[in-house]
Amino acid sequence: MTRGEQTRERILEAAEACFARNGYDATGVAEICQRAGVTKGAFYHHFPSKQALFLELLERWLETLDEQLAALRAKAESVPETLSMMSGMARHILQEGHGRLPMFLEFWSRAAREPAVWRRTIAPYRRYRAFFTGLIESGIAEGTLRPVDPEAVAGVLVSLAVGLMMQGLMDPQGADWGKVAEEGVRLLLSALTVEDENHGDTENTEFSHK
Description:
Mean pLDDT: 85
Order of helices and strands: HHHHHHHHHHH
CATH topology of the largest domain: Tetracycline Repressor, domain 2
CATH superfamily of the largest domain: Tetracycline Repressor, domain 2
Radius of gyration: 21 Å
Number of helices: 11
Number of domains: 2
Strand content: under 5%
CATH class of the largest domain: Mainly Alpha
Structural class: mainly alpha
CATH architecture of the largest domain: Orthogonal Bundle
């Protein structure tokens, strides 16, 4: 890592700590520079604004989530298994994002008033809807999911994820949100998954012997 890259990383780490502690609005460039041990000149050499810095933090976090989702997709043998494994990520995501989510929510509320920023902040939602749409299409093609509207199901999955993050942020002790995520996906899969006839026959046989 070059000296310039090290400086950039220090600024990003300092900014994330300041944003998490004080919020986006209350954090100034001077405070970030002081914590990072850099000059304002160095700051603006790497980032044109506090807003640009914040967006990079957001994108970095989402890139990590993207990598985790891709890894689970590659590991799973079917789409239902993929979705079940992904629901198990919820607890980890909530724990990892606990310090980040408040500042992201604060920034997103500001983005609603700034069209250019709004387009960049809404992009991840659209990307995840596209990801899950493709996943549901794959499940239909492989015969494990019923022929449903993939975009509608993708919208439900993204809404479930966002709703869980919001509740986990506002009421972290209100429930076991990781368990809620797993149960929500289980219920959804119970309606979407094509039943394995052989498995069903086995279950009926076992029941008849009791």
